[in-house]
Specification:
single chain, 91 residues, mainly alpha, rod-shaped
Length: 91
């Protein structure tokens, strides 16, 4: 029998990591906006650095969301298998 506890823990961990990464992205965006307002003398290199960090976080977030989608799909499949096994047993 497949352990749903492990799946639940994995989903919980991935959800937490996704939420943390969303917060990181929001923080970076807010810092970028604040810095742009505070000083119009930000050189192009600093702006590019911030943009690249933001792009990296967005890629990581997408990766975690993809993993979470796969885990949810797998969990749904396991539920269907378990339900079918229970149905087979009861017949």
């Amino acid at each position: 029998m497949i352990s749903t506890t492990h799946s639940t823990n994995s989903i919980s961990w991935l959800t937490t990591r996704t939420d943390e990464m969303k917060q990181d992205i929001a923080t970076i965006q807010q810092q970028q906006t604040t810095r742009a307002r505070a000083s119009k003398s930000i050189d192009g290199d600093s702006h590019k650095s911030i943009d690249s960090r933001l792009a990296l976080f967005e890629e990581r977030l997408q990766s975690f969301e993809d993993i979470l989608d796969n885990v949810n799909f797998s969990q749904d499949m396991m539920k269907e298998e378990i339900n079918q096994e229970l149905k087979d047993i009861s017949e």
